[in-house]
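no rush on this but wanted to send it before i forget. theres a chain ive been looking at and ive put its sequence and its fold in token form underneath. i want to understand how the tokens follow from the sequence so walk me through it. thanks a lot i owe you, the record is right below:
>
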Amino acid sequence: MTDKVEEKQVETSFLVHQWGPCLAQLKLDDGVVKHLLSVAKSSNKPHNKHLAGLLDKEVTLNKDLIIPNLAPIIGGYHQVYSQYVGKPATPLPRYQLLSAWANFQKQHEFNPPHDHNGELSFVIYLDIPDVLKEENKKFKGRHAGPGSIQFNYGEGNKQFVTYRSIFPEVGDMFIFPAALVHWVIPFKSDCVRISVSGNIDKQTEGLI
């Protein structure tokens, strides 16, 4: 004869602490996306020598054409970050857009793991061809598939959340600490995916 152990439900509350970098995602409206796409397509000044990407076409953007769209968004990120770290919001720091460029990613091209200069970095997706979307839908695997962006923080312990893999949509913007390692998976489709990236730092001139 064996004794039965009665299971009891214990009601309690947990405080879960935020941990790691503050990676924020938002959706830009169509007007902003069209403006940035026009800015990207009108530039022909190579930016490749400043970047880690294995892309044929990466071009420098006119920062004055980007700043008006960034100013309110960076203010919003500052508020989100304050909530993320559980501290009262402080006055918005004075920021400068260090650099901005467009990425024209083609078949088999990719960005290896890398980080950026400055305090914050961002990437905005402006044009994602349907053929790439279809390729991504057919992917079977453990990450977000061809054309996805990956973010990695920490040592990769499976008990921890150290990795984010996301296949973006048109208008998606990601803002994150510039030191956060990230990379972009290549794709096989014969097409061009266009995005805009940039680095931001605390400064006293060229404010946004």
Remarks:
- The domain at 24-202 is CATH 2.60.120.620 (Jelly Rolls).
